[in-house]
Amino acid sequence: xxxxxxxxxxxxxxxxxxxxxxxxxxxxxxxxxxxxxxxxxxxxxxxxxxxxxxxxxxxxxxxxxxxxxxxxxxxxxxxxxxxxxxxxxxxxxxxxxxxxxxxxxxxxxxxxxxxxxxxxxxxxxxxxxxxxxxxxxxxxxxxxxxxxxxxxx
Length: 153
Ligand SMILES: [Zn+2]
Description:
Elements (H helix, E strand, L loop, with lengths): L2 E11 L4 E10 L22 E10 L2 H7 L7 E4 L2 E7 L23 H14 L1 H11 L4 E11 L1
Antiparallel strand pairs: 1-5, 1-6, 2-3, 4-5
Bound molecules: zinc ion (ZN).
């Protein structure tokens, strides 16, 4: 594992929501605790095994949202150990490479134009992704950010 440090626009989903996912289990109508995988009849009472629908709560992962919207999943990466953070896989314009440059000083107070142009670039390049996330998690839970990402990869 390697450490990555980036100054970049990114997305933060403040509330990953859970959704009900429908499932089916095979049960005996009388012995519903008995789950019959491949069997046709209950070994306890001989009744026919039936399909029973149930739901489980599952976290709605961003990649599932992208999949459902027909968007390429690897354009915005979720970052391990950084819950709800999505990092672009492209470098923004005028990217400050703080991993490879040595002896540098960037006065970020004077970089507000650069920050704004990177945010605009991000919003435009990932427009469809952001809209899909707004639809899935509600706009107030999805934040476009600019700043420092420090993570393991
Ligand atoms: Zn039974």
